[in-house]
């Protein structure tokens, strides 16, 4: 694979990582498969777009998107999900219903045109890396992915909250029994996961554009990543993102007619041998 | 008018009409309203186009005060949800429950083909100003499925291939969405271009809704071609044009687009990255033809945007039907006469500013405009005609019978002449 | 006295329902007959999902794909390959069963949320193949053809044919879940570890259960292909799977025949709502949310609760109430 295509795969993987890491945090700790995650991504993109075009600030757009999506996550978690208990099927279908509503609302507010989040002047144009001309913005996405990874790694491994999250992933009841208010940890995790979807929406909205059904596409990739990486594993989601991003690029270059199969074929194979994913662990629950 | 209110009242009316006993209906029908069922994607991936389709139809019907040939017109709008299963279900409802005498609309080929397959059985006239599948006016015609003010996919890319030759292009690469509409548009260009001595270096087919075009752009950049033809619609078109610019291909290799790639529905939200893309179409919103100008101006004043292909086509399509109905005194119940009238009608006064008629196969013959995206004085982009091919047939310069003996364009058959 | 495995009271009730169902087309408009046909077809799909969900504790989000594959094969075999409708239907159902077998091989070792995820992902693969294998599947445009034999072209004739088929497969499904094998599945649903320690081969039972469920989904898919004369990627998409599951839940998990009630409710809702508002998607989403929060036992479950409260009797409907997607309590 040429350096150019490698960069394509890596930058796409970085975006997928930002979105999927939020997904896996929620899935890992709360055991909730949040099928509204894609809708949160898309809505985050739209909100970021609205703020960025009005204020002219990309950074404000990002902050606004994260805050707004975290707030919507709060509504989903506290307003709806807590009424269905820990029944997986009800959770899944509830989040899907929520996604339908969000998508439709987005269609009402922004219409169906495709929008692109405006990027700041300094990120426009391109630069030479490894001897190829490459768009600066995509390199910025790659860098953001790395920063988010580092941030999450520090959070999970060097803070009390992180320790609680990690312990909760393994055995939530045990943490609860030790006197910690695990509900609070759940809530913070849900908000953080949602905010990451919002951030992903803004970043993706600037080079993949925003339009109805963009949510489903990113959700499918996120699902694949989490299934490959395993539940609640940060390294897993990193590796999963790289695999999916690179396979996607490789597939489009080498087997264009099998585009989806190149990602989902290996995933199915992997599952046959490791049902819990590469880094997933069986849990006590 | 409040659309929801309108929908409500019209479906209520439909229910009443449906409940009426059969023998009554025939008698009442002659004096009752003309009921037109409009199928359009109001939700789903092409929702914005669907909304403009409604606008186009309403814009025309309002201009005639919802009166055709002295009869009241009732428009019933149904959302096909960009989904063929839903389109089929809604078509059934419009015909069997709503007693619509005709259907018009649908945007995506799969929805249109599903409905066409259905009306083949019922005989309901179905008008398709947007559905462009070649074979509906070529190898698999259905008498009651008529392409009023529409086009067949390869009809405009044939002359476009010829134009490319005249530019002195020797080598072209194509990139396209991988479905029939794309195969047909690329095929039209590839056949004429290669038969005239040009070379199609490579063809890329990607799935609809490809988020990231970078893998393709990398390969396109390596090809060293004279021009790149991109057959993209909707969000894919937006992204492709944008990423084409951000990867620095713009300015290096001229970009040619299918008509839908530079349609207003796409370039409306774009900036300078869409500047200078050349495409071929029957309609150019930036034309200086006075009739076109007037239409664009009025449409813009009413809806706050330059009309797209969808608004224009539906406006002209319903106008065509109306003109045919005028000729037969509004007797929509006599299906055969109605269909005959539509087929024989020559559309006058449409935004094209030219009279249009159907060929012997039911496809309109247009002057094909070679258009270029240009910045307007107010900073918006639109398509301005550069040159024009008068009276282009869907068969280009080929003999229809011979042409239809070759297979329809597909991923594997692009009509490419081996050098 | 037992008639075909039913108590005589139940048999009479079934007969009454069948007579009413058979008489319906004489009263309804053509469009309504088509809706009723659709309800029967999706009722079968919902029931096939319920076999796994209500009786084996595994909910599949991939049944829409199994359903759709059958449709693809039916349309392809009759329109493209020129086979007779009967042969096409047979092939379609076989194909669906085979897909279910593959799904089952990969999925039976998982449970709970992993089972949901895995079946969802497998369904996506099928969708991707239908979308991209253009030469065979027609890609985005799908496949069209006149699949119905001439004597079934009329609305009523087709409705009656579907009703007959539905009655037959419903009876078969009912016998299946009441068979010793079905009771073993129930045992697995309630406690996998207990069944294991009793010496049952749990994965094998689930595998067979999945394949049988896929067979019935395939029957529904074949009927749907005949109904539409058309099939496209949206027929195998996730939305189809989800709607099937929603119908099953709306009817009541583990009630089997609730599938028809759920299908009727959802199809009626979609039709009524979409006539009055463009925002039917919001309404559908809200329906999901409301059902999940307020009526997880479904319509049948609610009715039953009311009935039990009123009469405190009816031994023949005294099946245990089912929790949605029971977790393995190991």
Characterise the protein shown here:
The complex is a heterotrimer of chains A (285), B (419) and C (330). In chain A, a hairpin with a 2-residue loop joins strand 1 and strand 2. Chain A has eleven helices and two strands; from the N terminus they run H-H-H-H-E-E-H-H-H-H-H-H-H. Chain A starts with a helix and ends in a 12-residue tail after the last helix. The model of chain A has no long low-confidence stretch (mean pLDDT 89). Chain A is globular and about 55 Å long. Chain A has a domain of 194 residues. In chain A, helix 1 packs antiparallel against helix 10. Chain B is globular, with a radius of gyration of 21 Å. In chain C, the strands form two sheets. Chain C has a two-stranded antiparallel sheet with strand order 1-2. In chain C, strands 3-4 form a two-stranded antiparallel sheet. The longest helix of chain C is centred in the first third of the chain and has 27 residues. Chain C is globular. Chains in contact: A-B, A-C, B-C.
Q: Summary?
A:
With 285 residues, chain A is an all-alpha fold.
Q: Note the gap between the termini of chain B.
A: 59 Å
* Radius of gyration based on Cα positions of chain B: 21 Å
Strand order of the largest sheet of chain C: 1-2
General shape of chain C: globular
Which range does the strand content of chain C fall in? under 5%
Number of strands of chain B: 14
Helix content of chain B: 40-55%
Kindly report the oligomeric state of this protein: heterotrimer
What is the overall shape of chain B? globular
Q: Cα-atom Rg of chain C, whole angstroms?
A: 19 Å
Helix share, percent of chain C: over 70%
Range of strand content of chain B:
15-25%
Mean pLDDT of chain B: 90
Number-wise, the strands of chain C total: 4
The stretches of 5 or more residues of chain B where confidence is low (pLDDT under 50) are 1-29
Q: Give the H and E element order of chain C.
A: EEHHHHHHEHHHHEHHHHH
Structural class of chain B: alpha/beta
Largest sheet of chain B: 8 strands, mixed
Describe the main β-sheet of chain C briefly: 2 strands, antiparallel
């Amino acid at each position: 694979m040429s350096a150019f295509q490698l960069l394509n795969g890596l930058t796409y993987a970085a975006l997928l990582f930002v979105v999927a890491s939020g997904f896996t945090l929620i899935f890992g700790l709360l055991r909730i498969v949040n099928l509204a995650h894609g809708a949160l991504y898309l809505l985050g993109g739209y909100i970021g777009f609205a703020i960025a075009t009005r204020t002219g600030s990309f950074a404000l757009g990002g902050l606004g998107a994260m805050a707004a999506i975290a707030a919507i996550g709060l509504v989903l978690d506290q307003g709806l999900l807590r009424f269905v208990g820990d029944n997986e099927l009800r959770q899944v279908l509830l989040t899907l219903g929520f996604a339908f509503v969000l998508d439709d609302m987005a269609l009402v507010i922004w219409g169906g045109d495709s929008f692109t989040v405006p990027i700041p002047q300094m990120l426009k144009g391109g630069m030479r890396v490894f001897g190829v001309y490459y768009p600066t913005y995509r390199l910025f996405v790659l860098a953001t992915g790395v920063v988010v990874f580092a941030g999450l790694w520090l959070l999970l491994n060097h803070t009390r909250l992180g320790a609680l999250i990690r312990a909760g992933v393994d055995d939530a009841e045990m943490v609860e029994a030790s006197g910690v208010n695990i509900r609070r940890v759940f809530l913070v995790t849900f908000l953080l996961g949602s905010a990451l979807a919002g951030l992903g929406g803004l970043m993706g909205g600037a080079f993949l554009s925003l339009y109805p059904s963009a949510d489903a596409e990113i959700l499918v990739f996120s699902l694949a990543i989490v299934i490959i990486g395993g539940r609640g594993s940060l390294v897993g989601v990193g590796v999963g993102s790289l695999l999916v991003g690179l396979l996607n690029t490789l597939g489009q270059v080498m087997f264009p007619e099998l585009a989806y199969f190149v990602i989902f074929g290996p995933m199915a194979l992997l599952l046959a041998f490791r049902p819990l994913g590469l880094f997933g662990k069986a849990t006590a629950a | 008018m409040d659309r929801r209110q309108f929908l409500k009242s019209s479906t209520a009316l439909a229910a009443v009409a449906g409940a009426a006993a059969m023998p009554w209906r025939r008698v009442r029908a002659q004096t009752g309203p003309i009921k037109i069922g409009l199928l359009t994607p109001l939700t789903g991936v092409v929702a914005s186009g669907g909304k403009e389709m409604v606008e186009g139809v309403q814009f025309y019907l309002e201009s005639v005060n919802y009166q055709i040939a002295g009869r009241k017109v009732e428009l019933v709008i149904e959302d096909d949800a960009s989904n063929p299963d839903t389109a089929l279900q809604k078509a059934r409802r419009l015909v069997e429950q709503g007693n619509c005498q005709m259907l018009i609309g649908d945007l995506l080929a799969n929805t249109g083909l599903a409905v066409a397959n259905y009306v083949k059985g019922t005989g309901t006239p179905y008008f398709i100003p947007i559905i462009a599948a070649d074979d509906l006016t070529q190898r698999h015609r259905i008498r009651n499925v008529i392409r009023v003010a529409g086009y067949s996919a390869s009809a405009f890319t044939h002359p476009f291939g010829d134009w490319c030759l005249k530019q002195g292009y020797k080598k072209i690469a194509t990139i396209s969405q991988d479905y029939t509409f794309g195969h047909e548009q690329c095929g039209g260009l590839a056949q004429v271009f290669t038969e005239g001595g040009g070379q199609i270096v490579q063809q890329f087919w990607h799935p609809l809704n490809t988020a990231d075009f970078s893998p393709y752009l990398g390969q396109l950049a390596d090809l060293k071609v004279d021009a790149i033809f991109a057959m993209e619609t909707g969000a894919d078109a937006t992204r492709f044009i944008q990423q084409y610019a951000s990867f620095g291909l713009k300015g290096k290799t001229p970009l040619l687009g299918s008509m839908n790639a530079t349609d207003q529905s796409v370039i409306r939200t774009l900036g300078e990255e869409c500047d200078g893309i050349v495409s071929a179409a029957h309609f150019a919103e930036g034309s200086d033809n006075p009739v076109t100008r007037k239409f664009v101006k009025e449409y813009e004043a009413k809806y706050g945007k330059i009309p797209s292909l969808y608004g224009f086509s539906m406006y002209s399509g319903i106008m065509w039907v109306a003109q045919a109905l005028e000729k037969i005194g509004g007797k929509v119940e006599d299906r055969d006469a109605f269909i005959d009238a539509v087929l024989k009608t020559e559309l006058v006064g449409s935004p094209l500013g030219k009279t249009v008629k159907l060929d012997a196969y039911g496809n309109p013959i247009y002057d094909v405009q070679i258009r270029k995206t240009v910045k307007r004085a107010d900073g918006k982009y639109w398509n301005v005609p550069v040159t024009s091919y008068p009276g282009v047939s869907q068969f280009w310069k080929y003999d229809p019978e011979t042409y239809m003996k070759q297979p329809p364009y597909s991923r594997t058959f692009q009509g490419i002449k081996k050098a | 006295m037992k008639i075909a495995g039913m108590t005589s009271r139940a048999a009479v009730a079934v007969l009454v329902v069948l007579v009413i169902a058979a008489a319906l087309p004489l009263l309804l408009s053509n469009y309504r007959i088509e809706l009723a046909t659709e309800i029967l077809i999706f009722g079968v799909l919902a029931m096939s999902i319920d076999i796994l969900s209500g009786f084996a504790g595994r909910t599949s989000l991939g049944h829409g794909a199994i359903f759709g594959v059958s449709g693809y094969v039916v349309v392809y075999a009759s329109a493209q390959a020129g086979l007779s409708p009967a042969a096409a239907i047979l092939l379609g159902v076989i194909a669906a069963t085979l897909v279910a077998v593959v799904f089952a091989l990969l999925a039976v070792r998982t449970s709970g949320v992993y089972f949901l995820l895995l079946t969802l992902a497998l369904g996506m693969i099928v969708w991707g193949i239908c979308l991209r294998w253009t030469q065979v599947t027609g890609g985005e445009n799908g496949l069209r053809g006149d699949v119905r034999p001439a004597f079934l072209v009329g609305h009523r004739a087709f409705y009656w044919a579907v009703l007959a088929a539905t009655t037959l497969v419903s009876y078969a499904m009912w016998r299946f879940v009441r068979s010793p094998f079905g009771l073993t599945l129930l045992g697995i649903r309630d406690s996998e570890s207990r069944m294991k320690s009793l010496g049952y081969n749990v994965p094998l039972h689930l595998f067979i259960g999945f394949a049988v469920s896929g067979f019935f989904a395939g029957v529904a898919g074949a009927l749907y292909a005949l109904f539409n004369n058309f099939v496209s990627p949206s027929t195998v998409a996730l939305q189809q799977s989800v709607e099937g599951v929603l119908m099953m839940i709306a009817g009541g998990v583990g009630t089997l025949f609730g599938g028809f009630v759920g299908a009727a409710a959802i199809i009626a809702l979609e039709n009524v709502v979409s006539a009055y508002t463009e925002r039917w998607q919001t309404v559908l989403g809200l329906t999901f949310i409301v059902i999940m929060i307020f009526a997880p036992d479904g319509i049948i479950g609610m009715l039953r609760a009311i009935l039990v409260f009123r009469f405190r009797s009816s031994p023949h409907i005294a099946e245990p109430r089912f929790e949605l997607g029971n977790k393995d309590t190991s």
